[in-house]
Amino acid sequence: MGQPTVTESQFIALWEKHQSPTKIAKILGISERATQSRRQRIQDKLGIKLHAIDPRGGNPLARSQKHPSRLTCSLHEGIVLVGSDAHLWPGPLTTAQRAFIHFCKLLKPSIVVMNGDVFDGARVSRHPAGIWEHEKRPSVREELQACSDFLAAVSKAVGGAQKVWTWGNHDQRFEYRLSALTPEYEGVPGFALKDHFPGWTMGMSLWVNDVVIKHRANHSGIHAVYNNTLRAGKSIVTGHLHSLKVTPYTDYTGTRYGVDTGTLSDLEGPQFNYSEDNAANHRSGFAILSFREGHLTYPEVVQVWDDDRVEFRGQLVEV
Asked: Is residue 70 part of a domain?
């Protein structure tokens, strides 16, 4: 057997950058089989795990046998882009939605997550039409088309990344109404929301390594993000409350994070007429989760600045 073309540390650095035996084989000018063999020898010798992405560019998703609605995924190095609460109606995309697509292209995430309430369900809402409304509520069909158009743009922007949609309480309205009125149609294609979006994997939660991503957790109110991570014992990323913030919590086990992913919708949009024009502690934007050596670094947020720009890392980005 010939001498290795790179040292162990160089091979590990290449692997952590590309996470693909096919790419590394081409770089080193050796066979993919030889690349995999060396990967295995290094893992056995050093007691480490060199994670690989699948050929489509994302990490393989799995469903928990104990919790079938829970999706799981490992990620050694990479970015997870998380947006939530788009509450999509027909019409132009909001600033946050345009920015989400822009950052999908810019950051090339391994996983993109729609963290609930993509579908609004305006006509199947528990809130009746109010006297403050000046705009006709869209039909379910119109909303589905708006969701399809936006998600198609996201899919095009992220290429082969894994695409996950965690159910929100508004998303569930689609099936709640149908199951209540026509239970005999259970299982008929089209009667489940997932039937309309086959390119997206749906579940109640996504666990990336030890980080939990779901639409909402047990707690609400101003201290919800803090209480969620305190009680969960894990970093937990939620939507639902539209507050867009990061709250770290440190104890004897180390530091973990509570993250609220804000809202991709317009804060002044007609979807929120039920609030009766009250002030709300809401912010438009989304979250960026970066994983290094299998661990979550300090989460970041992108927040809407004005109609055409968002703020990120102290810079104003036009979208």
From this structure: yes
E-strand stretches of the chain: 62-63, 70-73, 78-83, 111-114, 162-166, 201-203, 205-208, 211-214, 236-238, 245-251, 254-260, 285-292, 295-296, 300-304, 309-312, 315-318
- Sequence-distant (6+) residues with CB within 8 A of 142 are 89, 90
Q: In the 8-state DSSP scheme, what is residue 122? A: G
Q: Please report whether residue 57 resides in a domain.
A: no
Task: Mark the ranges of the chain whose per-residue pLDDT is less than 70.
Answer: 1-4, 51-59, 125-135
Same domain, 89 and 38: no
* pTM of the predicted model as reported, rounded to 2 decimal places: 0.80
Of the candidates 75, 64, 81, 53, the one whose C-alpha atom is nearest the C-alpha of residue 163 is 81
State the helix-helix crossing angle for 8-18 and 21-28, rounded to 10 degrees. 130
Structure tokens at 244: 């867009």
